[in-house]
Amino acid sequence: KNGNNRLDAVVSSIMNGIDFKAEGISAVIVQGDTTSAYAMALSAFNHQVKVVHLEAGLRTYNLQEPYPEEANRQMISRITDLHLCPTKTAYANLENEKVPGEIVVVGNTVLDNLLDIETEYGFKVLVTMHRRENHNNIKEWFKQIDKLASDNSHYEFCLPIHPNPAVKKHKNLLKNVKVVEPMDYNILLDYLAKCSFVITDSGGIQEESAFLRKPCLVCRQETERAEGLGNFSLLCKSPEELAQGFEDLASLEMSGDCPYGDGRSSEKIIRLLENDILCHTG
């Protein structure tokens, strides 16, 4: 219906979309913190179907940062049977919340695609910007990104423009940045592997850049992936901090193992499912 809240529409369409009994579904895996993941988990719970949450335990404890993802993941955690956490911090968050279900650290599957990628450090900077909480000042972010690109013209700044109209309508502000259409995932990974620095408000790219050891500037007020801060990434809370933040990236240590996983999460998850969900149905 016209005028419906978009998030309400997502929930209602998923809640009415699956006949668990007819499909013979005994468990569902939901990944991340989207509204569709929450709706699927709730629908499964309502039908007494087991819920497995992949990427469980990420928290900022601020329901507006990010919105609506922080609320989604907290609500999913209350009805999950098996929590698959990316990090020990996520594990501790769930323990402190006294959630039901089993909690296991497995890393994040997004890194499993990166095991065989060879990296180099060319004069490239990958930039992505799309989060809802940045929409109100996206013009200022783009202006400062463009100035940064102008002041560092020996680097190619490349920004795959997000299709959201709130972002895309301001792309003309980026006169010194190579603005491209959204990249195929493999092309994006190739650029990430060859760049020297990353500027982003994306959660997944924070993890990928850490795994590939690319210094990352996180353009957000808060991040649920705080494990890499100070070593693999820096927080940039406002457009005015961008220039100093970019300068500070050069001094990151990038020492130790990637805090978000070792690239073998899928193997661990398959073993868990075989020993738990698949062997204890009904």
Gist of the model:
With 282 residues, this protein is α/β, with parallel strands linked by helices. Helices cover 36% and strands 15% of the residues. Helix 1 runs parallel beside helix 3.
What does this protein structure show overall?
- With 282 residues, the chain is of the alpha/beta class.
- It has 11 helices and 10 strands.
- It has helices at 6-15, 20-23, 35-46, 69-77, 88-97, 138-151, 165-168, 185-194, 203-211, 242-249, 265-275, and strands spanning 27-31, 50-54, 82-85, 102-105, 124-128, 156-160, 178-180, 197-200, 216-218, 233-235.
- The chain has a 6-stranded parallel β-sheet with strand order 7-6-5-8-9-10, sandwiched between helices. It has a 4-stranded parallel β-sheet with strand order 1-2-3-4, covered by helices on one side.
- Helix 3 (35-46) links the parallel strand 1 (27-31) and strand 2 (50-54).
- Helix 1 runs parallel beside helix 3 (35-46) and helix 3 runs parallel beside helix 4 (69-77).
- The mean pLDDT is 94.
Largest sheet: 6 strands, parallel
Helix count equals: 11
3D shape: globular
Distance between the termini: 38 Å
Estimated helix fraction: 25-40%
What Rg is obtained from the alpha carbons, in whole angstroms?
20 Å
What is the residue-averaged pLDDT?
94
* Uncertain residue segments: none
Strand content: 5-15%
The helix/strand order is HHEHEHEHEEHEHEHEHEEHH
The count of β-strands is: 10
Biggest sheet strand line-up: 7-6-5-8-9-10
The assigned structural class equals: alpha/beta
